[in-house]
Amino acid sequence: MIELTGVHKSFGTLEVLRGIDLTVESGTVTVILGPSGSGKSTLLRSINHLEKIDRGRVRVDGELIGYRQAGDKLHELGERQILKQRAKIGFVFQNFNLFPHLTALENVAEAPISALRKNKSETYERARALLGRVGLADKADVYPRQLSGGQQQRVAIARALALEPRLILFDEPTSALDPELVGEVLDVLRDLAAAGTTMIVVTHEIGFAREAADTVIFMDEGRIVEQGPPARVLDNPRHDRTRTFLSKVL
Ligand code: ADP
Ligand code: MG
Q1: Alpha-carbon span 92 to 172, nearest angstrom
Q2: Of the residues 23, 51, 113, 233, which has the maximum number of CB atoms within 10 A of its CB?
Q3: If you measure from the C-alpha of residue 138 to the centroid of ligand 2, how many angstroms do you get, rounded to a whole number?
Q4: Distance between CA atoms of 181 and 233, rounded to whole angstroms?
Q5: Where does this protein have coiled-coil stretches (predicted)?
């Protein structure tokens, strides 16, 4: 589903990704852990074409979206193909990023209608069903400011699902939430995982990683330091840096 090979990315002189190799199989949940600044968001953004890589290859869903060797120019898809690819990848951000002037239902229906030119009444019907799926059937006509953070994030997840993505990237989906609201969002992620959704989740929620992940990855300073099944990485880390990190977040 996703294959990254030798991916490098710098911002000026700051090397943020230093040779990332990563494979994600369809239908699996990958949880990425790692300290702030280790390159987790940049990695997700590279998969979704929000960052252009400096070196390496990124392949998503069988399609080579970008590659470059040292000194070579970046070979990547054209703008139209990039937009098409991006529509297949859902992205859920830490800060929900809902449109404040649209209702919950309109937020969910917006992209299929405006970007994919889908039929309006069918899209609204589907959007209603998706709000039901995240437990917000009764909030369809409410504006984001009238919703709690947890509810807003669940709308954002329904909005990502509305594009019927092949893959969903979550960048710290619960980090901006009050502690008592974290559980309701993780419950939605668990449901998606159980339904076989391919997901990459950057989170510090170790309990979620333990239950829901097929693979846990620990990143530090732009590298994947370790990866494996949750029980192995979380209970038996091989590297000191993983151990130190886990002792801080557990
Ligand atoms: P993480 O998500 O693990 O906290 P990021 O991928 O956001 O890490 O950032 C990794 C490093 O790259 C940080 O030092 C950050 O300040 C830097 N960085 C991220 N995006 C940019 C950017 N657009 N321009 C310059 N530096 C950036
Ligand atoms: Mg980040």
Answers
A1: 8
A2: 233
A3: 32
A4: 27
A5: none
How many Å lie between the centroid of ligand 1 and the Cα of residue 180?
Answer: 29
Residue 244's SS3 state is helix
Looking at the CA of residue 172, tell me the nearest atom of ligand 1.
2
Ligand 2 centroid to Cα of residue 37, in Å, is 7
Give the residue, by CA position, lying nearest to ligand 1 atom 19. 42
- Would you place residue 66 in the very low, low, confident or very high pLDDT band (cuts 50, 70, 90)? low
Q: Ligand 1 site: residues with CB under 6 angstroms?
A: 11, 14, 16, 34, 36-42
Cα of 163 to ligand 1 centre, how many Å? 28
Q: Calculate the alpha carbon distances from 179 to 15, 41, 174, 183, 185 in Å.
A: 33, 22, 9, 8, 11
Comparing CA positions, the residue from 184, 219, 225 lying closest to residue 203 is: 219
Which atom of ligand 1 sits closest to the CA of residue 39? 6
Q: pLDDT by residue (tens digit) across 96-132?
A: 999 999 999 999 999 899 877 889 999 999 999 999 9
* φ/ψ (deg, to 5) at 60: -125, 125
- Ligand 2 is an ion; its neighbours by CB within 5 Å are 40-41
pLDDT in tens, 45-57: 999 888 989 899 8
Q: Which two tokens stand for residue 230?
A: 């949750």
